[in-house]
Amino acid sequence: MSDMPSIAHDTLVRLFHDRPQLAVEILQDLMEVNLPATSLVRVESNTFNTRPSDDIEADLVIVLGPPQAPAHVIIVEIQNDKSKDPRQLARYAAAAWLLLGCDVTVLVICTDRGAATHYARPIDSGLTGYRLHARVVGPDDIPPITDPHEAAAHLELSAMSIMLHGRDRKVIEALATALADTPPGHASKYYEYAYDMSGPEIRYLMEEIMKSTDWPVFTPFAREHYGRGLEDGEARGKAEEAVKSVLLVLGARGFTIPDDTRDRITACTDLDQLERWLTRATTAQTLEDLFNEQG
Question: What angle do helix axes 6-18 and 184-197 make, rounded to 10 degrees?
Fold first, then answer.
């Protein structure tokens, strides 16, 4: 049984889902893995089907390159203990290779050193000649980020740094300083990433530090006491993120977006409408399909 709260696991998955480029940056910058040079990075379905109709589901599947010609797949797994059979990681890689026909890297994020060591070993898949070497990021691979400028440049890593090294006040203070100059919608998101991924002791310290400054705190506790006006800022931030997602999906699928269509999307502040457009953007055959309310 894992001792990592499910909310921390789910938050880490959401962190990578919201910005899949993070997986590319970790592999290239922290682990010096050579990946195809492409600006097209998207989240793919994370469910693979095997015979006889068993579904195996990875935490996150990220594809580099255009949909019609995938260049590389990154499978992101969050593990804090040794409960998952390592051979399952090899199955994920094989299923992705069969489905998409390109090379695959398995990236395992571990908040426990023992788990990191466990999954870093070569994995015998059970198929003769096929051994998987997963790329594993453990607590020692995410540095404590104490420089606000570095935190501002790498908000996701800074949030993960708090999860792992947040007992050091300077790590929390670096993110707080960085978020002071970040738009409210983004600031709340990254603060809550760090808050949700962290244990009670670090959460308490985060609230203590934030309450001692003029920077607004973005937690349930803080909303109750300091959160007037945050709801509107968060709503705007979510709408802005949804607009970006719609445009990114359309661009990744090869659509050329005329100015009037782009203006219509960017002018929308209705989050429900934007989410409907985002859903349609994944399957639309024409741009008109995006706005077809009957579809």
Answer: 140
